[in-house]
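does this look right to u?? magnesium ion version
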Amino acid sequence: MAQQIDRTGTPAAERAPAAAAPSAAAPGPGRRFAALRRRMPRSTFGRHALITLAALVAVVLVLELTSPFRNSQFATMSYYAIAAAGLTVLTGLNGQISLGHGALMAVGAYTTGLLLTGDGGLPLPVVMLVAAAVTALVGAVVGAAAARLHGPYLAGATLALAVAVPGLAIYFDTALGGEQGLPVASPHVPSWFADAVYFLSANETPTAKYLAYVGWGTLLLVLLLLANLMAARTGRVWRAVRDDEVAAELAGIRLGRVRVLAFVVSAACAGLAGAVLGIVVRLAAPSGFTIVLSLGLLTAVVVGGLGSLVGALLGSALLVFLPPAVTNIGIGAGLDGTQAAQLAPFVYGVVLVLVMLLAPSGAVGVTKKLWNRSRKNRRGPSTRRTG
Amino acid sequence: MLGAAPKVWAPPGIGVTAARAPGDAHVSALTSSNGPTSPNGPPAQPDLSTAVFAASGIGVRFGGLVALDDVSLAVGTGQVHGVIGPNGAGKTTLFNVCCGFVRPDAGTVLRHGKPVRNLRPHRLAGMGIARTLQGVGLFAGLTVAENVMVGADRHRRAGFAATLFALARSDRDERALRGRAMAALSELGADGYADRLPDSLPYPVQKRVALARALAAEPDLLLLDEPASGLSNDEMTELGELIRTLTDRMSVVLVEHHMDLVMSVCDRITVLDFGKVVADGTPDEVRDDPAVIDAYLGEEATHS
Ligand SMILES: Nc1ncnc2c1ncn2[C@@H]1O[C@H](COP(=O)(O)OP(=O)(O)OP(=O)(O)O)[C@@H](O)[C@H]1O
Ligand SMILES: [Mg+2]
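got this back:
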């Protein structure tokens, strides 16, 4: 008989011959996991809202129990995580790489700086929403161009964005403050918020802690909405377009629209991240949004595990907490301050290279693999022989 | 897509021509006089205005090469229409024209007798047309059930906002899509693999999943691109029976190299050679047509 070769180029004869039986319901941890799932609310919203609420409790506990210095570190982590969550959706789920997310954050930060005037101006949530919307609009334009580009071309186009946007801020220096940057008004702590915190923990709420709450509140909301998208049709279609354009198109999916939508959602997250950055740093300056920021986000997403929201959280935690930890270790080992500070980027680079080499699926991917392996081992050979 | 699309836009994988060994099987199947007869008796040639789907006077050139020249074909309701021909005859190109991947230089594609203007691949599903790809073309990062749910995507109801806020509407929609997917999978006996990733499955199962993905769209016209490649003889017989059971719901166009399958399953067959239709008729008529035997003998001569 004529040997047939499929699209992948593998001759049929070399493929696995026997039909493996579908895996039986796994006993042990699998069943326990299923039982836990059964106790969760049936609706996607109920399930995600419950998890978000639990996370909120954890956030309150951590922010109330840690020092003001840690509070400000958590605030920094929140805006990295918001941007990284948006980026992991774009790159991990939809397969589009972006080196321009730092620039999109700049759009959000500058918008916030222009709109947030302190007393009597727009309230903070409105300003943040507008920042997200403006950045989403920029994202739509970039995304429409990006939808036709692939691989290195897409990287190049978004890189151009990363270079151009800070340049814009310098060019329009009267409105945007030039090199010096645009100061961002610090929002007041609302008295109802301070009262609520005092009621819960008998702690005062300094501005730094309030900003950490704003950052983490925004982060949890972003994660909730992204998780909703990922659990349903939108996420499935993003992944389908990433995996096989032709098959997706034949299923009636409009590739361009789907790609632009992913870019818009991702850009809106970057805009929110920029808004949080603006109020936390109290400044939107070109030097804060260089290509280094974009690359940092991308590495955070890769280290954590592409396409995973938990991975984005882990990656941004590493981005914020690893360098000072390394510096401290360096000083402990007898290095002077400058030497220790130079050690941090070096260690970060080494970690990144190691992850790329040893665990390209990132931290979350490795955990999943280990978990699956332990499940398989416990299932034992008796069920596997049925295959 | 956006703006001025190039005339020929064949993405990777769409036009890949399967490498074949010299096919003496084809000739023997064609020349054997005691082959299987057409299942429904000789069906009449549907004319262009009553056909579910038709191509009329299609011409395609790639540079100096004439890939298709005045090719017409008409598929009747509930018919299985085979398209056969030796290597490079233009079968895949014809399929790509029917799907909007290649824009023809001449001729029109007709749906229920009406010309289809500006045919684009993403519009096919909405027109009730589904196509399987040569190979499998499954989404590697999606489970089997999710793969088939993408196939059923044209039946979705909930929009972006419903998904973003996880409204009850979105959950209902997801359940409905999953229901359609599971129904399509169990029709093909693949529902037991719903939560597996495609790469972990044997090739014949992957082909079944790919077929389920096409069926989940509930098309009334199914275009099958070499569905039997990589299948064993038993699986091929099973596939043939399945295709016949589909005919009460849809018409099928079948591009296939396995002559036994084509001869036993098709109501009508169009034979292409060097981009031209050399025969069109029932399997019995086509089998004895000297032009067809010439085409295949010519092919064998070049191979030996
Ligand atoms: N995109 C393209 N550009 C240039 N030439 C092409 C293109 N697609 C197909 N051809 C040529 O057109 C002719 C018909 O090819 P086609 O793939 O349609 O044949 P086929 O009947 O499907 O062959 P096979 O049975 O081997 O799959 C071939 O000579 C092929 O080389
Ligand atoms: Mg072909």
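The first strand of chain A starts at residue 182 and ends at 183. idk if thats expected tbh
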